[in-house]
Specification:
Radius of gyration: 19 Å
Shape: globular
Oligomer: single chain
Distance between the termini: 19 Å
Largest sheet: 7 strands, mixed
Helix content: 40-55%
Order of helices and strands: HEHEHEHEEHHEHE
Number of strands: 7
Length: 193
Amino acid sequence: MTDTSPASNARNYPLLAAPHIHLHGPVDDAMYDTFKSQLVAAPTEGPLVVSITTLGGDPEVARAMGDNIRLLREYTGRETLFLGKVAVYSAGATFMSAFPVDSRFLTRNSRIMIHERQMQSTIELNGPLNTLSYTLKAKLHEIEDSINIQEEGFRAIVEGSKVSLEDLKKKAPSNWYIEAEEARDLGLILDII
C-alpha cells in the first residue's frame, strides 16, 4: 500500500519546497512588478516554481503574468510549476490557468474560487439622439469582448481536467469554491502537498 499522507506526498515533489517566485495579496500592478522582479532574479535553468496566495484582483494583470509564464515555457521549453497556497481566488485562478493541469499543485486546506468576470458601470446618455446608439453599442461590445475573454480563461482552467467547460460555466455565476481534494479529484491540479 502506498503512503499518501500529506508529509510523504510533499516528499514526492521536493522542488515545491522552495518556490522561485512568491506572490501574495491582491493581483494588481504591484504584484506584477514583484512577479517581474522575482522572475528576472530566478535561476535561468531547471524548473521554475511560482507560488501564489490571493483573494483576487485584476484579471488582466493575471492574464499578463500568465502570458509571461506561457512565453517562457514556449520559448525555452522550461518546465513551470504552480503552487497555490491557502487561497487561489478569482484572478489567482486566472493566473493558475496559464499552467498545464499536470504542473499545478495546492497546499493542504487550500481552495480555488472561480467566478464570472464582474462589471460595474454607469452609462450616461448625453448628446444628439443620432449619436446615443454609438455609446450603447460601444458598451455592448465591451461586454461581449469581456465574455469572450472570460470563456478563453475558463477553457484554459479546465483544459486537461475532468471538468467540462459547460459545467464550469454553470457553477461560475455563484462563485465556485473548490477545496484542494476536490480540485485534485477533478483533475484541475495534479496533487496536494
